Description:
Layout: H1 11-15, H2 34-37, H3 43-59, E1 65-68, E2 73-77, E3 80-87, E4 91-96, E5 110-112, H4 114-117, E6 122-127, H5 134-154, E7 179-185, E8 191-197, H6 202-210
Antiparallel strand pairs: 1-2, 2-3, 3-4, 4-6, 5-6, 7-8
Helix pairs in contact: 3-5
Amino acid sequence: MEEEEFVDFDRFGTLLEERKNKMKGGILMQAYDEAYFLKDKPVWLKDLFRKIDNFCVNEIQAGVANTFLHTYVRYSFNNLMFCKIKSKLESLKIYLKLRYSEIEDPPKWVRDYSKVARQTWVEIIIRKEDLIRETILFDMTTNLIKKSFNRVIKHPKLSKISIGKPERILPGFVNPTKFKLDLEISTDGFAQVGIRVHKSQLPKLLEKILE
Protein backbone atom coordinates (compact mmCIF):
# COMPACT_ATOMS: atom_id res chain seq x y z
CA MET A 1 0.00 0.00 0.00
CA GLU A 2 1.30 3.42 -0.93
CA GLU A 3 2.45 5.47 2.05
CA GLU A 4 0.24 8.37 3.10
CA GLU A 5 1.65 11.65 1.87
CA PHE A 6 1.11 15.10 3.31
CA VAL A 7 0.70 17.86 0.75
CA ASP A 8 1.77 21.31 1.82
CA PHE A 9 -1.07 23.77 1.27
CA ASP A 10 0.16 26.40 3.71
CA ARG A 11 0.12 30.12 3.03
CA PHE A 12 3.91 30.39 2.74
CA GLY A 13 3.88 28.29 -0.43
CA THR A 14 1.25 30.56 -1.96
CA LEU A 15 3.06 33.79 -1.10
CA LEU A 16 6.38 32.56 -2.49
CA GLU A 17 5.08 30.84 -5.61
CA GLU A 18 6.06 33.68 -7.97
CA ARG A 19 9.64 34.00 -6.75
CA LYS A 20 12.25 34.75 -9.41
CA ASN A 21 15.10 32.48 -10.42
CA LYS A 22 17.56 34.57 -8.42
CA MET A 23 17.48 35.60 -4.78
CA LYS A 24 18.99 38.77 -3.37
CA GLY A 25 22.67 38.31 -2.72
CA GLY A 26 23.32 36.36 -5.91
CA ILE A 27 22.11 32.93 -4.72
CA LEU A 28 20.82 31.05 -7.75
CA MET A 29 17.43 29.33 -7.59
CA GLN A 30 16.29 26.26 -9.55
CA ALA A 31 14.17 27.18 -12.58
CA TYR A 32 10.97 25.13 -12.50
CA ASP A 33 9.25 24.30 -15.77
CA GLU A 34 7.58 21.42 -17.58
CA ALA A 35 10.91 19.73 -18.31
CA TYR A 36 11.78 19.77 -14.59
CA PHE A 37 8.30 18.55 -13.62
CA LEU A 38 8.34 15.61 -16.04
CA LYS A 39 12.00 14.65 -15.71
CA ASP A 40 12.50 10.86 -15.64
CA LYS A 41 8.74 10.24 -15.74
CA PRO A 42 7.26 7.48 -17.95
CA VAL A 43 5.87 8.32 -21.38
CA TRP A 44 2.25 7.55 -20.45
CA LEU A 45 2.39 10.01 -17.55
CA LYS A 46 3.94 12.75 -19.70
CA ASP A 47 1.24 12.33 -22.36
CA LEU A 48 -1.57 12.35 -19.81
CA PHE A 49 -0.22 15.38 -17.98
CA ARG A 50 0.11 17.39 -21.19
CA LYS A 51 -3.49 16.59 -22.14
CA ILE A 52 -4.76 17.68 -18.74
CA ASP A 53 -2.51 20.74 -18.69
CA ASN A 54 -3.78 21.78 -22.12
CA PHE A 55 -7.37 21.37 -20.94
CA CYS A 56 -6.79 23.53 -17.86
CA VAL A 57 -4.95 26.32 -19.67
CA ASN A 58 -6.73 26.41 -23.05
CA GLU A 59 -10.18 24.91 -22.68
CA ILE A 60 -11.68 26.00 -19.35
CA GLN A 61 -11.49 29.76 -19.78
CA ALA A 62 -9.06 32.29 -21.19
CA GLY A 63 -6.74 33.58 -18.50
CA VAL A 64 -6.08 30.35 -16.60
CA ALA A 65 -2.40 30.20 -15.61
CA ASN A 66 -0.18 27.25 -14.75
CA THR A 67 2.73 27.82 -12.36
CA PHE A 68 5.46 25.18 -12.08
CA LEU A 69 6.81 24.91 -8.54
CA HIS A 70 9.23 22.55 -6.80
CA THR A 71 6.83 19.67 -6.18
CA TYR A 72 3.66 20.52 -8.11
CA VAL A 73 1.96 22.59 -10.80
CA ARG A 74 -0.57 25.17 -9.63
CA TYR A 75 -3.55 26.19 -11.78
CA SER A 76 -5.30 29.46 -11.05
CA PHE A 77 -7.59 32.10 -12.50
CA ASN A 78 -7.22 35.69 -11.27
CA ASN A 79 -4.88 34.20 -8.62
CA LEU A 80 -7.62 31.85 -7.38
CA MET A 81 -6.24 28.31 -7.27
CA PHE A 82 -8.60 25.53 -8.31
CA CYS A 83 -6.20 22.66 -9.11
CA LYS A 84 -2.77 21.23 -8.23
CA ILE A 85 -0.97 18.40 -9.98
CA LYS A 86 1.94 16.30 -8.69
CA SER A 87 3.88 13.75 -10.73
CA LYS A 88 5.27 10.53 -9.29
CA LEU A 89 7.02 7.68 -11.10
CA GLU A 90 4.00 5.43 -10.66
CA SER A 91 1.11 7.93 -10.70
CA LEU A 92 -0.22 11.37 -11.55
CA LYS A 93 -1.95 13.07 -8.61
CA ILE A 94 -4.52 15.80 -9.06
CA TYR A 95 -5.96 17.89 -6.20
CA LEU A 96 -9.26 19.74 -6.66
CA LYS A 97 -11.35 22.12 -4.55
CA LEU A 98 -14.35 19.81 -4.27
CA ARG A 99 -16.21 18.11 -1.47
CA TYR A 100 -15.99 14.34 -1.82
CA SER A 101 -19.54 13.95 -0.49
CA GLU A 102 -20.86 16.00 -3.41
CA ILE A 103 -19.30 13.79 -6.11
CA GLU A 104 -21.87 11.40 -7.51
CA ASP A 105 -20.64 7.79 -7.66
CA PRO A 106 -16.94 8.66 -7.23
CA PRO A 107 -14.61 6.15 -8.93
CA LYS A 108 -12.00 4.26 -6.94
CA TRP A 109 -9.23 6.61 -8.10
CA VAL A 110 -10.89 9.61 -6.38
CA ARG A 111 -10.67 10.02 -2.59
CA ASP A 112 -11.51 12.53 0.11
CA TYR A 113 -8.37 14.50 0.98
CA SER A 114 -9.80 17.16 3.30
CA LYS A 115 -8.61 15.53 6.53
CA VAL A 116 -5.04 15.28 5.27
CA ALA A 117 -4.84 18.76 3.76
CA ARG A 118 -7.12 20.34 6.41
CA GLN A 119 -8.87 22.10 3.54
CA THR A 120 -11.60 21.27 1.05
CA TRP A 121 -9.79 18.94 -1.37
CA VAL A 122 -10.30 15.69 -3.23
CA GLU A 123 -7.38 13.72 -4.63
CA ILE A 124 -7.35 11.94 -7.98
CA ILE A 125 -4.67 9.25 -8.33
CA ILE A 126 -4.18 7.94 -11.87
CA ARG A 127 -1.88 4.98 -12.52
CA LYS A 128 -0.92 3.33 -15.80
CA GLU A 129 -3.39 0.46 -15.32
CA ASP A 130 -6.23 2.98 -15.04
CA LEU A 131 -5.67 4.03 -18.66
CA ILE A 132 -7.36 0.90 -20.01
CA ARG A 133 -10.42 3.15 -20.33
CA GLU A 134 -8.46 6.32 -20.96
CA THR A 135 -11.20 8.25 -22.80
CA ILE A 136 -13.71 7.73 -19.99
CA LEU A 137 -11.10 8.49 -17.33
CA PHE A 138 -9.99 11.68 -19.10
CA ASP A 139 -13.57 12.89 -19.55
CA MET A 140 -14.40 12.27 -15.88
CA THR A 141 -11.19 13.95 -14.71
CA THR A 142 -11.67 17.06 -16.83
CA ASN A 143 -15.30 17.27 -15.73
CA LEU A 144 -14.20 17.31 -12.07
CA ILE A 145 -11.53 19.92 -12.84
CA LYS A 146 -14.17 22.12 -14.47
CA LYS A 147 -16.43 21.71 -11.43
CA SER A 148 -13.55 22.72 -9.16
CA PHE A 149 -12.92 25.80 -11.31
CA ASN A 150 -16.57 26.85 -11.21
CA ARG A 151 -16.77 26.28 -7.46
CA VAL A 152 -13.70 28.42 -6.72
CA ILE A 153 -14.88 31.22 -9.02
CA LYS A 154 -18.26 31.20 -7.26
CA HIS A 155 -16.71 30.97 -3.78
CA PRO A 156 -13.26 32.68 -4.00
CA LYS A 157 -12.48 32.15 -0.30
CA LEU A 158 -12.19 28.41 -0.96
CA SER A 159 -8.88 29.16 -2.65
CA LYS A 160 -7.28 30.34 0.59
CA ILE A 161 -9.16 29.47 3.78
CA SER A 162 -8.49 26.31 5.76
CA ILE A 163 -11.42 24.29 7.13
CA GLY A 164 -9.50 23.25 10.24
CA LYS A 165 -6.83 24.40 12.64
CA PRO A 166 -3.32 23.32 11.56
CA GLU A 167 -1.43 21.08 13.94
CA ARG A 168 1.43 23.56 13.94
CA ILE A 169 1.68 27.10 12.70
CA LEU A 170 5.43 27.56 12.41
CA PRO A 171 7.72 25.37 10.27
CA GLY A 172 9.17 22.47 12.24
CA PHE A 173 12.75 23.47 11.46
CA VAL A 174 12.37 26.76 13.35
CA ASN A 175 12.43 27.21 17.12
CA PRO A 176 9.24 29.23 17.86
CA THR A 177 10.94 31.17 20.64
CA LYS A 178 13.59 32.50 18.23
CA PHE A 179 11.56 33.05 15.07
CA LYS A 180 10.19 36.31 13.67
CA LEU A 181 8.42 36.75 10.32
CA ASP A 182 7.79 40.10 8.60
CA LEU A 183 5.48 40.04 5.57
CA GLU A 184 4.95 42.96 3.20
CA ILE A 185 2.62 42.72 0.18
CA SER A 186 3.08 45.48 -2.40
CA THR A 187 0.62 46.78 -4.97
CA ASP A 188 2.58 45.27 -7.89
CA GLY A 189 1.52 41.74 -6.88
CA PHE A 190 4.78 40.68 -5.22
CA ALA A 191 5.34 39.84 -1.59
CA GLN A 192 8.48 40.43 0.49
CA VAL A 193 9.14 38.08 3.37
CA GLY A 194 11.67 38.93 6.08
CA ILE A 195 12.73 36.25 8.57
CA ARG A 196 14.69 36.85 11.78
CA VAL A 197 16.19 33.68 13.20
CA HIS A 198 19.19 32.71 15.32
CA LYS A 199 22.33 32.12 13.26
CA SER A 200 22.56 28.53 14.49
CA GLN A 201 19.33 27.74 12.65
CA LEU A 202 20.16 29.69 9.48
CA PRO A 203 21.62 26.71 7.50
CA LYS A 204 18.45 24.64 7.99
CA LEU A 205 16.26 27.61 7.11
CA LEU A 206 18.15 28.33 3.89
CA GLU A 207 18.05 24.65 2.97
CA LYS A 208 14.26 24.61 3.31
CA ILE A 209 13.83 27.81 1.30
CA LEU A 210 16.04 26.54 -1.53
CA GLU A 211 13.96 23.38 -1.78
